[in-house]
Amino acid sequence: MSRHPDPPISLAIFCKVVDNYGDIGICWRLARQFQAEHGIAVTLWVDDLRSFRRICPAVAPEAAEQVVEGVQVRHWQGQEGSFTAADVPDIVIEFFGVEIPPGYVAAMARREPRPVWINYEGLSAEAWVEGCHRLPSMHPRLKLTKHFFFPGFTSSTGGLLREEGLLDVRDRFQADPAAQAAFLAGLGVTDGEMAAFRASLFCYPHAPVAQLFEAWRQGEREVLCLVPDGVARDQVGAFLGTEPHPGSVATRGRLTVRVVPFMPQHDYDRLLWACDLNLVRGEDSWVRAQWAGRPFVWHIYPQDENLHHVKLRAFLEKYTGDAGHLDSLTDFSLHWNGAVEGGQEGRAADWPALWRSLQAELPTLSARASIWQGLMLANGDLVSNLLNFTRSLR
Ligand code: TRH
Predict the structure, then answer these.
(1) CA Rg, the chain, in Å?
(2) For 169-194, what is each residue's pLDDT tens digit?
(3) The pTM is what?
(4) Could you say which of 90, 214, 269, 283 is catalytic?
(5) Please, how many CA atoms are within 13 Å of residue 77, restricted to the half-sphere of its CB?
(6) Ligand 1 centroid – CA 45 distance (Å)
(7) Burial tier of 394 (Cβ tally within 10 Å: 0-12, 13-18, 19+)
């Protein structure tokens, strides 16, 4: 018996890339999972194929249309264009409220039956999310209703993106030191560097990277920091004393910083799985760090009026909430994000002390990471949850 629906469902995702590769990380993962695990015919509309190519080297940046890993990828070149009802699939997902071309929306209104229209929202641990998840919003003029869908950390939200079998693949990799060593060697890590405490670094340029490097340099144990090419370029360059590029490396005190290639998504997971601590950012790498089952620190994407600090605190409260004392993670994270009350900026903090406390609590954080994972697993996977929701609307 086929595990896929017959006739196949069709679906389109509209993704605008902000700040280089923002959002494409999530959309690409979403598109692949709909296609690979549910047999859905997916069209991914993306405005910036060059950024897309960084996380998926198979993408041809000049192609108006192409098929990548079974997903129809279309270059979204603007708001112009006319579409027929036949161009519109069963489900249309707009990412973070992007404005779908008006001609396309008009075609959606002409289609019989109407497509299910989803506004896929950003991940947040704030309490209001549960109240807004699945809410409808009527189009002001056309006979169309869009529904909000929120990823989240509770059963009253859409849950988190997770591919089938992900944790099994991860477990096998983490239980296989030879596979990890081979992967790290492929990134340029030398035998001499293998024994150090490993941290991966992915953050926005304003993170206090130089201060953390200094704390690691003076620290009690050897740290190997693996930085994908282009991340925190200025601060990494200042540490290295040269323009960073894949293969650049320098050791000062207890810290070795090594620049590794910016890798495809699939390999980035392995990097997270192979590190003792992951500094991640935005949304998709943050979720992947949660599935890596290792301690992590989140650098949140900045918003006006420091709204992101509210989101950061909401997550930290939820993550550490029933775990008792994880004060070191909260302190470290607030300083890493410049979110400390009383105006103390991340850069002025006592980073050696913050790192010592975090380091001392790493075993507790590892234990918390696996408990958290169990809690998140119980919410199901986001793609299945979203499809169940769309079925309830059709
Ligand atoms: O790209 P981001 O900064 O994305 C963000 C968030 O989506 C945020 O909510 C949004 O508002 C902002 O964009 C504009 O960080 P994120 O979400 O972690 O996505 C990065 C992707 O890049 C993720 O899929 C992991 C992937 N990646 C690789 O594939 N290879 C790499 O070497 C690295 C470092 C990342």
Answers:
(1) 22
(2) 999 999 999 999 999 999 999 999 99
(3) 0.95
(4) 283
(5) 9
(6) 18
(7) exposed
